[in-house]
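> call design_seq(struct)
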């Protein structure tokens, strides 16, 4: 396929996902798997799980980094950037526009938001079933799934997930170091190690240099860029974890009011795409649409540099037999983590009444058995949620 046609394909698919991927990072991984693994077959389930496992280690928005990684496998660094733009831009535009209207509408109590939460239940359940069949086919890996589920559910701390993945990798190395993978995954990374080294160096240089520059120059845009970059660099656990950091950075200083911040938080959960785009709302509230774009670039730049920097080395490491054995355990742990997140917060926040469960069952049937495209599931879920609210 022509390179520019490939870039256009990435842009179209990632934009479609950016317009329809409701439900948070775990749901995003379900949408990605359905589109890129099941429908397009751009990579195998094992390769996809390896990529998810890597992004779980890195700070920043894991689902966005997975999307960037998939774009890289198709069309190099530019493909990764195009994938990022397509997935992120719809919610950025929506949130910048919402700055001017968010306080005039009671979006947080709208029925369609509840419907989108229920949609996430169906999407994540589908992803869990598919990934568990491929990544935990035997009793040993099923046991790792159970262990990961129990620990992450009962010990819900920020470092628990990373610790579980590390421990599962060690267990996998012990249990499967004599085993051979029954499938050779072909996930070519068209990035050089030199390029990766430059990106990692730039990541740390900005992390250290921006605070120094901010103290030497009182310009608002430098201070904003520094605050958003640090938030994107130091947060593990996804978009919800970054919100307290952003609140401490901007509300006490008076750059954004507590009321506007909370309204933006509600709106951010109502639009598709990564929750990190909440930065666009804050930036636009402070400095208009240019501030929104600046905040978006600053908070996502660490994630981009990290995935660009680590993928070239990850591609080589995952071909090592010892690493492959460890990945048996890591991939099983990812399934357990998904199940844990499926229960809390997805299930607990969405399935409240029998009619909620009925809608989730209908959406699951539409997705799994009727094979309807994900966007129709999103529309049906939103309409269903609104109908439930009106009963």
């Amino acid at each position: 396929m022509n390179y520019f046609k490939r870039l256009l394909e990435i842009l179209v698919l990632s934009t479609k996902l950016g317009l329809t991927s409701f439900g948070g990072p775990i749901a995003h991984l379900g949408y990605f798997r359905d589109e890129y693994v099941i429908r397009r077959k751009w990579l195998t389930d094992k390769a996809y799980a390896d990529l998810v496992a890597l992004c779980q280690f890195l700070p920043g928005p894991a689902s966005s980094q997975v999307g960037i990684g998939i774009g890289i496998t198709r069309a190099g660094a530019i493909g990764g950037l195009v994938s990022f733009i397509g997935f992120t831009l719809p919610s950025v535009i929506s949130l910048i526009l919402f700055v001017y209207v968010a306080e005039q509408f009671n979006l947080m109590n709208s029925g369609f938001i509840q419907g989108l939460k229920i949609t996430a239940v169906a999407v994540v359940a589908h992803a869990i079933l598919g990934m568990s069949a491929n990544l935990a086919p035997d009793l040993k890996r099923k046991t790792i799934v159970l262990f990961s589920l129990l620990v992450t559910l009962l010990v819900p701390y920020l470092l628990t997930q990373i610790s579980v993945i590390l421990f599962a990798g060690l267990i996998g190395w012990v249990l499967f170091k004599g085993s051979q993978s029954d499938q050779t995954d072909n996930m070519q990374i068209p990035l050089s190690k030199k390029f990766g080294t430059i990106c990692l160096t730039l990541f740390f240089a900005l992390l250290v240099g921006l605070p120094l520059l901010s103290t030497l120059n009182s310009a608002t845009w430098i201070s904003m860029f520094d605050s958003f970059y640090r938030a994107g660099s130091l947060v593990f656990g996804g978009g919800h974890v970054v919100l307290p950091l952003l609140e401490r950075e901007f509300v006490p200083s008076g750059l954004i009011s507590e009321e506007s911040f909370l309204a933006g938080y509600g709106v951010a959960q109502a639009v598709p795409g990564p929750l990190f785009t909440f930065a666009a709302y804050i930036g636009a509230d402070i400095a208009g649409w240019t501030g929104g774009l600046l905040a978006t670039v600053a908070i996502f730049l660490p994630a981009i540099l990290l995935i660009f920097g680590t993928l070239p080395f990850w591609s080589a490491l995952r071909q090592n037999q010892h690493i492959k054995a460890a990945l048996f355990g890591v991939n099983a742990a990812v399934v357990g983590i998904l199940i844990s997140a499926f229960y809390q917060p997805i299930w607990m926040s969405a399935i409240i009444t029998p009619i909620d469960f009925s809608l989730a069952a209908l959406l699951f049937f539409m997705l799994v058995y009727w094979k309807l495209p994900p966007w129709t599931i999103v529309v049906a879920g939103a309409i269903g949620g609104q109908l439930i609210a009106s009963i």
